Amino acid sequence: MGSLYEEPANGFHAKNTEGQVITCKAAVLWGPKEAFTIEDVEVHPPQKMEVRIKVICTSICHTDLGAWNALNEAHRAFPRILGHEAAGIVESVGEGVVDLSEGDHVVPIFNGECGECVYCISSKTNLCERYRVDPTRSVMTGDSKTRFFTKKGGQPIYHFLNTSTFTEYTVLDSACVVKINPNAPIEKMSLLSCGVTTGVGAAWNTANVKSGSSVAVFGLGAVGLAVAVGAAVRGASRIIGVDVNPEKFVKGRTMGVTEFINPKDFKKPVHEDEASFTSDKIERIFRSRTQAGWLYNTRAPIFRNQRGVSITFRGQVLEMLA
Questions:
Q1: Is the bond into 156 cis (omega within 30 degrees of 0)?
Q2: Over the chain, what is the mean pLDDT?
Q3: Are 17 and 138 spatial neighbours (Cβ–Cβ below 8 Å)?
Q4: How far is CA 81 from the centre of its chain?
Q5: What is the pTM of this model?
Q6: For residue 106, which of 93, 145, 299, 304 sits 20 to 30 Å off, Cα-Cα?
């Protein structure tokens, strides 16, 4: 199927699709741990305060794996289109949407903001009363219906995390869409939907890293590296990266990591070796609970004498540990 967009001199525009049902390809999950199937789906037009976007790029996150496993029965809703990290172009907007228009480059966000509720205007949280992330929600906020249907039979297909990006077209609440600079390389923008913002936000907002402070980052994947960037921007003087893959240290250094620990380099358990990394206070510790067992086994021993705050990533949810 060809693209519904062509590129004139002033950018993209839709070809008579506004207000119409669009048929496109999507990766549909029919049950826990089942193989995704690429199917023709119908994507209905956006309704009031909704936006339909053409997905240009989408990436996979561990949260998608958790939804695929569907271990929590309350989160199960099938068939479903997963995916929440993406970048795309607005194809059309619904009634009442004034801050977005056709052709805008955007990223979806699973933790939307109305900008008006008591939570959105608070300086302590951005968990919007209406559009906050909710893994149990599987329909649109406005009318509790889906915008996806199977081409054959018209069966409803459920939404995921306010986003559903494993499809060529998707419909989102406008509160879950953020406009980005059209000059930014769109193929690199999908990580802004989750990985980068989760890591940078953990350092910048949740942990509130201060200038001159020392932090440790367990796991130098996309989120861990983003934590390092956020800590560096906030002026952290010491950023210790911990990972079992030494190849990540090269990239880590470019992201602001100043020191590295590979637990595999120690002949004895780390807490029995030289306490070279505990001489100074580590004020903030970040770790991903989606990483391998070494994370659990090394964090406490290495920094057993430290006093500060630990930020733990459960998928993408942050937990403050005393």
A1: no
A2: 83
A3: no
A4: 16
A5: 0.82
A6: 145
